[in-house]
Amino acid sequence: MNFHTRKWVKPEDLNPNGTLFGGSLLRWIDEEAAIYAIVQLGNQRVVTKYISEINFVSASRQGDIIELGITATDFGRTSITLTCEVRNKITRKSILTVEKMVFVNLGEDGLPSPHGRTEIKYVKDQFQEEAIG
Question: In the chain, which ranges are continuous DSSP H helix?
Fold first, then answer.
């Protein structure tokens, strides 16, 4: 799993207990996962269909730098399934895991549309295809 996105936990991200508010973290995860799905499917019209059980493993506090890791685990005809882990950038301690997130590829009509993808596309490969094409 590659960890690309990093967030700095600020005072406005905290709950009354002084730890990272779960809602803020879930918003960051959904946004990052949607961007990942958009890049993988080559289509800006994707929607979140399903998020499995969310397992909060440990807390994060103000000043922590956290990183989000997302990877594709399955490609359906019109969907992509992802897994996610959030960890502390410095200690590498896991903060949260999401086993399964499903995003659906939409056509211009707003309905599920086949995407034709079967495997993860890495950025280096995307640039090589563009240079050749």
Answer: 22-41, 123-132
- pLDDT tens per residue, range 48-70: 999 999 999 999 999 999 999 99
- Which range of residues forms the domain containing residue 103? 3-132
**Distance separating alpha carbons of residues 96 and 117, to the nearest angstrom:** 28
Coil vs helix vs strand at 110: coil
Q: H-helix or E-strand containing 56?
A: strand 54-56
Q: How far apart are CA 121 and CA 88, in angstroms?
A: 26
- The CATH number of the domain where 102 resides is what? 3.10.129.10
Overall number of domains in the chain: 1
Residue holding tokens 């590829």?
Answer: 105
Question: Using the 8-state DSSP alphabet, how is residue 43 labeled?
Answer: -
CA distances from 5 to 66, 86, 113 (A): 8, 10, 28
pTM strictly above 0.85: yes
